[in-house]
Amino acid sequence: MAREMLLAGVDPEELKPTESPEPPQTPGDKLKNFWFYYKWWVLAIAAFVVIVGVALWQTLTTPTPDVQVVLVTRDVMDDAAVAGLEQAMQPYARDLNGDGRVLVDVENLPLAQYVGGTTYGMAETNTQKLMAYFVSADAMFYIFDQPCYDRYLHNLMDTADEDATFFAAPTFEAAGVDPDEHYWNWRSDPRRDTPWGELLPDDLYFGVRALGGTATGAAVEQRYADCMELLEAFVKNP
Question: What is the pLDDT of residues 50-101, one digit of tens each?
């Protein structure tokens, strides 16, 4: 009796259990059903695979330089100037990593706080990167313009040891080599008057970092010898 009272006025059709939807039967229906419920997961996984694949492809196909050269300047150097310097140095390098090609990579690290009257956002990052190179000794070949040498490098050496020099004494003699600081200034080099050379500062100090401090170990010593060989060949063959 109580049940009948509670269900008074209720349509019997409303009391029938809901029928479960018929599962997809054909492969096409199953695919549509899967896509309806999981399409965002599929798209997310596909995007992740593409990103990882591109990164991996770039890593595998990007050639490793035989010599890393760090060009430290106050201002941002023209890409054509940096490329010209790379091409000028390349004939005197060797295939040190055995990949069948010779590659010299010149990386420009501008340290100016302002460029064209506006704040240069990469200045602090470049300074930190330069310090990281100093600590790791991954790069042994350096080129400084005069402002950066005087402001950063020379002061850094004075703080560490007033008799210390950043550059190692060259194993060769040539005009333009400073007997005390051990760098080679390219001011009188004929490559200074080339189209790409005219885009670079008048005074550029080339040198190989001296061994010692964090620059120790067999790998670093070999890198030092290779860079000194390249420096001598470049200086003596203008």
Answer: 665 544 444 444 568 999 999 999 999 999 999 999 999 999 999 998 888 9
| Fold (topology level) of 63-236 | D-Maltodextrin-Binding Protein; domain 2 (3.40.190)
Burial category of 118 from C-beta neighbours within 10 Å (exposed 0-12, middle 13-18, buried 19 and up): exposed
Q: Terminal CA-to-CA distance of the chain, rounded, Å?
A: 112
Closest CA to 196 of 74, 70, 82: 82
Q: Can you count the helices (H) and strands (E) in the chain? A: 7, 7
Which H or E run includes 49? helix 27-61
How confident is the model at residue 58, as a pLDDT?
46
Confidence (pTM): 0.73
Chain-wide mean pLDDT for the chain?
82
> How confident is the model over 142-176, as pLDDT tens digits?
999 999 998 887 666 655 555 678 899 999 999 99
| 117 pLDDT above the threshold of 60 | no
- Is 69 in contact with 84 (CB distance < 8 Å)? no
Q: Do the bridges between strand 204-208 and strand 184-185 make them parallel or antiparallel, or are there none, so unpaired?
A: antiparallel
CB of 65 closer than 8 Å to CB of 86: no
User: Taking the CB of residue 129, how many other CB atoms lie within 10 A of it?
Assistant: 15
